[in-house]
Amino acid sequence: MNPSFLPPDDLPSWVPNDLELCWEFNDTVSRLFYNSCDEETQILLSKCGWNLTTGRDGITLVLICPRNGLTWQILKSLETVSEHLHQLGKRARIRIYPPPKTGSPMEVIV
Predict the structure, then answer these.
(1) Cross-strand bridge partners of residue 106
(2) Between the chain's N and C termini, which has fewer beta carbons within 10 Å?
(3) Is 18 exposed, middle or buried (0-12, 13-18, 19+ CB in 10 A)?
(4) Of the candidates 36, 86, 75, 55, which has an alpha carbon nearest to the alpha carbon of residue 63?
(5) What pLDDT score was predicted for residue 14?
(6) Residue by residue, what is the 3-state secondary structure of 32-58?
(7) Cα(86)–Cα(40) distance, integer angstroms
(8) 92 confidence band (pLDDT: 50, 70, 90)
(9) Dihedral (Cα; 44, 79, 36, 49), 10-degree rounding
(10) What's the farthest any 2 CA atoms get from each other in the chain?
(11) What is the tens place of the pLDDT at every residue in 4-62?
């Protein structure tokens, strides 16, 4: 076997070594997450920028809120959103970015 195709020693064997494959994997996991959400959560997600990534620390959902009222809606829906995340993995976190100049980002481990 060609040594250039072996994953680095510090990566788990399931982590793809190819960056394009990682993007495709994250895209697939994002679609699975969105499709598993109820309609109310899907509407909430569509009102803000969001991104879901996977890594050694589990799944991270990043939410970017364009207005403060939306930040409140997300905070009130954390339990529901975290239930959907847990369908994809045991370890997950939600990182919430409020509108610019209105506060600091929050991170919740779920």
Answers:
(1) 96
(2) N
(3) exposed
(4) 75
(5) 54
(6) HHHHHCCHHHHHHHHCCEEEEEEECCE
(7) 18
(8) very high
(9) 30
(10) 56
(11) 344 445 555 555 567 777 788 888 899 999 999 999 999 999 999 999 988 888 899 99
Structure tokens at 87: 């369908």
In angstroms, the Cα distances linking 21 to 10, 53, 94 are 18, 13, 23
Global pTM reads 0.77
- In 2-110, where do the E strands start and end? 49-55, 58-64, 92-97, 106-109
Could you give the CA distance from residue 37 to residue 45 in angstroms, rounded to a whole number?
10
Q: How many residues does the chain have?
A: 110
